[in-house]
User: Which sequence fits this backbone?
């Protein structure tokens, strides 16, 4: 068992089978399980096998009992995702990816906040035209434990576990947000695949590395921009503070999740990443 309270701000533990146990005033949440059979349309090589039937687990609406009402009244939801290590073919395990819905009555898609509770992640973020067919910009955001990102309005995202250890993510989102998965399924995944590569060093030894392989099912794949998350104290998003504390201490700091139209000048990659 791995205790995660120090990193998540909640009394949760990771079991040896890579499922979560909840304790204290946190009510148990049954995970939604992403089976390998449902992922084949999102992969670089759909014929590749995988060592687990379940690829990752999503826990929706996690909260301490004393916070549940305030979170619900704020129209927000806190989730956890557990992504075990592994590769499907030479592609590192990932979520299937999705875009976000437009906010009703506003010309803007919902943003989302993500945090690395444990492990290391590559987030592949991509923006597209209104019909989600023509790609505009693509980012690879690398982050480690404690780091957080805001997925900007209009960006789809995939979370990749590029290590031999488990990856645990948390996120805050508006209850009005809905995932749009079809463009990722149509194109067999994101604009880039994160795959295993090997580099020959000057000493003649081979070392393991990552390769970002363009997904040629898209008509045009923009050049990949590598970046890191910024500290965002204006939203109380700091690497030293679990994002669960951010929300429950001051839910108004997450107002941009419900009302992104009021923050459009701030919720842009140039101000969120470095």
Assistant:
């Amino acid at each position: 068992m791995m205790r995660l309270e120090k990193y998540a701000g909640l009394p949760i533990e990771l079991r040896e089978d890579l499922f979560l146990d909840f304790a204290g005033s946190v009510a148990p949440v049954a995970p939604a399980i992403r089976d390998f059979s449902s992922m084949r349309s999102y992969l670089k090589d759909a014929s590749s096998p995988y060592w687990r039937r379940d690829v990752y687990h999503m826990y929706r609406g996690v909260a301490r009992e004393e916070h549940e009402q305030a979170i619900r009244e704020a129209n927000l939801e806190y989730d956890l995702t557990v992504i075990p290590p592994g590769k499907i073919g030479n592609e590192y395990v990932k979520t299937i990816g999705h875009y976000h819905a437009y906010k009703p009555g506003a010309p803007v898609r919902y943003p989302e906040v993500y945090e690395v509770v444990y492990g290391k992640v590559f987030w592949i973020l991509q923006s597209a035209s209104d019909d989600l067919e023509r790609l505009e910009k693509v980012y690879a955001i690398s982050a480690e434990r404690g780091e957080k990102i805001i997925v900007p309005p209009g960006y789809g995202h995939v979370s990749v576990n590029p290590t031999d250890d488990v990856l645990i993510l948390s996120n805050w989102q508006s209850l009005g947000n809905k995932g749009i998965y079809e463009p990722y399924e149509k194109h067999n995944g994101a604009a880039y695949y994160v795959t295993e590569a090997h580099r020959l060093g000057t000493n003649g030894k081979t070392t393991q590395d990552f390769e970002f392989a363009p997904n040629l099912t898209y008509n045009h794949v923009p050049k990949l921009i590598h970046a890191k998350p910024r500290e965002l104290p204006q939203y109380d998003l700091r690497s030293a503070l679990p994002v669960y504390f951010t929300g429950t201490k001051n839910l108004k700091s997450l107002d941009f999740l419900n009302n992104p139209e009021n923050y459009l000048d701030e919720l842009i990659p140039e101000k969120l990443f470095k």
